[in-house]
Amino acid sequence: MTINENADDDVKTDIINSMNLLVPQKGDYRHVEGNSDAHIKASLVGSSVLLAIEDGRLVLGTWQGVLFCEFDGPRKRKVFVKCLNSKTMQQSDSGDVAKKIWA
Amino acid sequence: MTINENADDDVKTDIINSMNLLVPQKGDYRHVEGNSDAHIKASLVGSSVLLAIEDGRLVLGTWQGVLFCEFDGPRKRKVFVKCLNSKTMQQSDSGDVAKKIWA
Amino acid sequence: MTINENADDDVKTDIINSMNLLVPQKGDYRHVEGNSDAHIKASLVGSSVLLAIEDGRLVLGTWQGVLFCEFDGPRKRKVFVKCLNSKTMQQSDSGDVAKKIWA
């Protein structure tokens, strides 16, 4: 799963195409099920996302969405969602955040 | 660290081989310690995993395990484990999860 | 964002150069804004890091820092920081952690 632009579907297409260039479906793989590329892609993109919630809404950039990447489909998948207690939320410019974290 | 199949060891071999194709050990790197590839691989795979626990057990797919990827070994590493309080756990089909999150 | 060595700036240069080799800025992309490579790199590296805090300090390796990777800049970014309640902290050698988690 990954957080990325969810406004222009071409971004998703570009991500998929680029992943297929980086890790071709057919290659010199040992895993006999024929889906080694999907396993490798899953480890590159990651199996979970961490999302902030404020006032009952996901905190995402203007164009961002949460993308569930299926590299070995179509097949049925299950997604697990956990809500964690958080104490504080701080929003900073990227240039300032180091100072604030360490203050 | 990454979550991936832990049943067939060939998956791990394929991941390692593919990472070595993407980021060769020898390359036009500037870092003088000779382990630039390991640094890059670490950022591609990620330094931590987020794991759900229910009823005292890790919630993983049937074949999944947590893989500690050593790209610059063998050497001794330390792993840090934190347990976080969670409120709720929801399990959804990937097709339904968006609706539930936003409901 | 990623956790990696923050002592030798060459590591950052190597990461950037390697990302540019893997996902060239100019390519056969469909997204018309010209920053498809940045979107893809963002999904490879990931949009957040999970950091442990003990005694008011980030728990990082000796040389590690938190790197904010800008693949489509310079531009202004916002970083969101949340603090989560944690119960316990366990530090283990990588070879022992499986036993402890499952015990």
Automatic annotation (TrEMBL), chains A, B, C:
- Where does the source fall among the domains of life? Bacteria
InterPro entries xrefs: UPF0047_YjbQ-like, YjbQ-like_sf
Show the PANTHER family listed in the entry.
UNCHARACTERIZED PROTEIN YJBQ-RELATED, UPF0047 PROTEIN C4A8.02C
- Similarity remark: Belongs to the UPF0047 family.
Name of this chain's protein = Secondary thiamine-phosphate synthase enzyme
Q: What is the species listed in this Swiss-Prot or TrEMBL entry?
A: Fervidicola ferrireducens
